[in-house]
Amino acid sequence: MKLSARNVLPGTVVAVTKGTTTAHIKIELAPGLTMFSSITNEAVDDLDIRVGDTVSAVIKSSDVMVGK
Amino acid sequence: MKLSARNVLPGTVVAVTKGTTTAHIKIELAPGLTMFSSITNEAVDDLDIRVGDTVSAVIKSSDVMVGK
Amino acid sequence: MKLSARNVLPGTVVAVTKGTTTAHIKIELAPGLTMFSSITNEAVDDLDIRVGDTVSAVIKSSDVMVGK
Amino acid sequence: MKLSARNVLPGTVVAVTKGTTTAHIKIELAPGLTMFSSITNEAVDDLDIRVGDTVSAVIKSSDVMVGK
Amino acid sequence: MKLSARNVLPGTVVAVTKGTTTAHIKIELAPGLTMFSSITNEAVDDLDIRVGDTVSAVIKSSDVMVGK
Amino acid sequence: MKLSARNVLPGTVVAVTKGTTTAHIKIELAPGLTMFSSITNEAVDDLDIRVGDTVSAVIKSSDVMVGK
Hints:
In chain A, strand 1 (7-18) and strand 2 form a beta hairpin. The first copy, chain A, is globular. Helices cover 10% and strands 56% of the residues of chain A. Chain A has one helix and five strands, in the order βββαββ. The first copy, chain A, is mainly beta. Chain A starts with 6 loop residues before the first strand and ends with a strand. Chain A has a single domain (7-59), classed as CATH 2.40.50.100. A four-stranded antiparallel β-sheet of chain A has the order 3-2-1-4. The longest helix of chain A is centred in the middle third of the chain and has 7 residues, at 41-47. The mean pLDDT of chain A is 97. Chain A has one helix spanning 41-47; strands at 7-18, 22-30, 33-40, 54-59, 65-67. At the D-F interface, loops of D face strand 2 and strand 5 of F. Strand 4 (54-59) of chain A pairs antiparallel with strand 5 (65-67) of chain B.
């Protein structure tokens, strides 16, 4: 399945922190460039996301702001 | 002002396309790694966003999905 | 690629309306149950989305509100 | 109050899971078609959301991606 | 219908600008405090939103960042 | 850094509630007008957000719905 989301950035999982319902995932896109994601614990379990996994950070364009 | 958004990624504007109300901005974060942003024309005018500008792509963690 | 987004709902495209930069897609999930999506024109072109296509509406759980 | 959100889909609550601050709600829209929502515990308490309730899943069009 | 969205802020419409598919609405919440909203043209037509209308700006808590 | 987000509303923090991974912040924008924000615990720690702080609620226009 191809996505309408314009941002599908490959990287490596460097941290997985599960809370009671919400988990935080840290993805290294490039050396020194990390992306922080907040998803459900269910998604972490379903995709079996672990440190070292090759994944993609997926972001809809309308969720990207610009700072200058 | 420092932001709660965990993702503030520096880059260079490589394209600005204005529609009637909504504009699309392409930001190069690293060679071969671009971020696509959809913002209001007002924001483009207010920040005077132009190709070549040094900017940051700002994304709230809860807007980042993971694909595996 | 499997997604962390908990909502991936299959359906059929019943309308595609392109604006200057933003397009609107109407997806029928079930008889009488349609989903409205607002995405970039680039995504419509890239995925070649047309009326009659079998697609999925993809929604992150944190973007779903509840009304009662 | 009528909403600008184009997606207001009626359904039945089939699961409520409260975390420390964030709750997950599962809404059945049609047989075999469920919607997963992540909202605050405060909202669950305020609306008194319980399994069996008739509710609506409310989603802004700009939060709906398309996969093909 | 009561909403899980924790932010339902009453105000007055002070500007409506329609693009080809996306419209911008400016809502005055209090003197000197305005809220900018980007919604579909369909929503503007459906709710018949006009300057002077009493409306509410509705925002999900997970879409509110904090700057300090 | 100036933001493309059209809504940067100044206020005072009146409550901070940390969960296991997600925190809730209540910001008073004006007497009787409060904004509820859901952010990561990491952001609360990083910005050292405390009751009484002068902060801004930051919201992208595309995340603001209208109710009428």
